[in-house]
Amino acid sequence: MPPTNRQYNCIVIGGGPAGCTAAALVAQAGYTTLLVERDALPREHVGESLMPETYWTFEKLGVLDQLKASRFAKKVGVQFVNNTGRESQPFFFRNHDPHESSETWHVDRAEFDQMLFDNARAKGAECLDKTRVLDVLKTQDLVTGVRLQSDGQTVDISSRVVFDCSGQQSLLANKFGVKQVNPNLRKASIWRHYRGADRDESGGGVKTIISHTRDKQAWFWYIPQADDLVSVGVVADNDYLLKGRGKPEQIFAEELQKCDGVRQRVEGAEPLDDLRVAKEFSYSTTQPAGDGWVLAGDAWGFIDPVYSSGVYFAMKSAEMASECVIDALRLDDPSAERLGAWNDEFSAGTKWVRKLVHAFYSGEFRVGKFAMEHPEHTAALTNLLIGRMFHEDVPKLFDDLDPWLERMIAEASDSEPDDEMVDGAPVLA
């Protein structure tokens, strides 16, 4: 159905975690808010593993009790498997911080996103799915609304702020030419779900498992979920994974045979008929906001799935940007400067995760060895994996990690060092 009004204080594009967070917080502050999602909800989506630091945004949204009562699998840690199939000890987040925020969930994104969508409606936003944004409306350089298509009708809706959380569709970033694909992270992924695969719940919950293939050309995620399902995906350079190798089903099977850490876990399990592909998904934007518009979530940028940061970045950026939107509406000043004031702090935090991603893809990131040589940085590294990217100790980590990694790359040989355990401590990668 079309929107009930023709004018709102804020229009939010995209009904994923970022859009639902933005709509809920702006509406809760007392401003008329319209949230539109182009697809019919509920709908499947990749990105089921959450970072523990999402806890604080969930608390602000008022959905923690729903999550605690949900059927979602409780995530208590991570585990890494090297290219030889050797496993690290499980790394439990609560050993770093015993607060309940150190445990989170592996979610069914269809159900999770629907919960957040319903929460935005409960907070006062008008929420519509099956509604496409055809264009944005402008008066000179000021964005003043959107043109929508809903139930076969095309309508122009005005607003004081357009909040783009359209995900990798990146509607405004593409329109205004501010999206840039990362040339050093041109990755692709193929993923599917299995029923009846291995499920280790030692430690009181499930873990995200990251496993390299034997040739280290690719890595797999392994994410146990509710209802005896496991999400399994392979990630590699786009050209290596998808070009000239046949159908995605065949490529997935070939890479699985080279990944003992995952292949053994899915033996005898039932692969579901839901294989999907994504490519060249790492990108950034050169401008977070303009007059009358602001970006958040994947519409602002996406780094890589390796550390499960996507949903946390989406929700945290939307939370921070929402504060700027509320401020702009209160002062009647929807300028680029005011709407984008959140960006510097957020970018300063996410750049450390970006650096850790590049370290992972160097092929020589031996965290056990690094921790042995620099035990003073173990807490900072753990903070990054949990999502505490704004912690004051994190920048100091890279003062030593960068030169150490350069030395490891220079010393790299065909043999793999046996550093999976250091004084009984778990290896993180």
TrEMBL record:
Coiled-coil regions listed: none
UniProt entry tagged with the keyword Oxidoreductase: yes
Alphabetic keyword roster: Oxidoreductase
Matches recorded under InterPro entries: FAD-bd, FAD/NAD-bd_sf, Flavin-dep_Halogenase_NPB
Enzyme Commission (EC) number: 1.-.-.-
Cited Pfam families: FAD_binding_3 (PF01494)
Protein name (record): Putative FAD-dependent oxidoreductase LodB
Keyword Metal-binding: no
A single MF term (Gene Ontology): FAD binding
Domain FAD-binding: start-end pairs: 9-317
Gene that specifies this protein: lodB
Gene3D superfamilies in the cross-refs: FAD/NAD(P)-binding domain (3.50.50.60)
Domain of life where this protein originates: Bacteria
